[in-house]
Write a structure and sequence with these properties.
Bound molecules: pyridoxal-5'-phosphate
Oligomer: single chain
Number of helices: 10
Radius of gyration: 21 Å
Strand content: 15-25%
Distance between the termini: 30 Å
Amino acid sequence: MTFNFSAGPAMLPPEVIEQIRADLPEWHWRGVGQGASVMELSHRGRAFEELIAEAEADLRALLAIPANYRVLFMQGGAWGQFAAVPLNLLREDEVAAYAVTGGWSESAAKEAARFGRIEIVARGEAPGYTTIPPRSAWAAFPERLAYVALCSNETVHGNEIHDLAAFARDLPAPLVVDASSHFLSRPMPVAECGLIYAGAQKNVGPAGVTIVIVREDLLGRSGRVIPSVLDYAVMAKANSLFNTPPTFAIYAVALTLQWIKRQGGLAAMEARAIERSQALYAAIDRSRLFRAPVAPAFRSRMNVVFETGDPARDAAFVRFAEARGLSGLKGHRSRGGLRASIYNAMPMAGVEALIAAIEAFEAGEAQHG
Ligand SMILES: *Cc1c(COP(=O)(O)O)cnc(C)c1O
């Protein structure tokens, strides 16, 4: 048995992989063979149009998305959204506020600065980003504020905003959230946010599709000329079928949404995420060799960052774990150390195997000095 702790593209539920296998070479939609795989069929065909509509309906039900929000299936990844957000929302005479709480929000702010004026209103402490500045510690918002952007789960540094509603409260402008790496691991206060986006390949599917949930009044807000494929108004008008969408990726996301529903929805996902992450952090905190640097109140349930403090030992642990069938534990290249990504699809057995590896490695190190 092997367990894949990759941060993304990440493991999918085995049931989803089995369903994909069963749908090859011929896709069956609602029990009817389509004569080809989903990869080989028109996105304008009835089956695919029903599939994407069902995926949207499932997503709306899971997240309780209000009727005045549009759901878009886009391409270009979260990086595409780093640009699409200012292009769609930021007028020439306005300023966007960014909270930088880790590597991804830093990249989002830098990319946005290429397309308009931004101001950093909160900055976590680099290089570790082991805490997240609360709203009360943020700088005053600039005049002519277009939106406020943050990343609710920093995949590289392993911190997570656990009370997003508190960050959204009393903002003078819409909140824009990069939720890529914890999307659908917990309920979200969608109605408190202006826009939420997530690349699928962390928690809800394969690479190639990015989900955008945007409040209707923000469509076309900037009045700027933007590439049609990045234009929320264009994509919304076409129900995400403006041009050829990533059909296979959307199909796999649809299967994953059905899987989440069968498991009991986001309450079940959240309960499991709490169980997995608490067990793993507790084991790291017990250890005298490993440590988890992120302060407990800000620890991510999805991306558990840990380290020995010695890069050679971290590398030795990666090899030790690989030999036990545990892959993907090397920290992000920008940060080093170790990282276990334990998304929705990771079973508790995987976490238990990792804890056993941590304990066995530590016992071996103690023996050999
Ligand atoms: C992975 C990730 C990104 C980048 O996603 P791409 O699909 O590679 O563009 C951005 N933000 C967060 C939080 C991520 O986890």
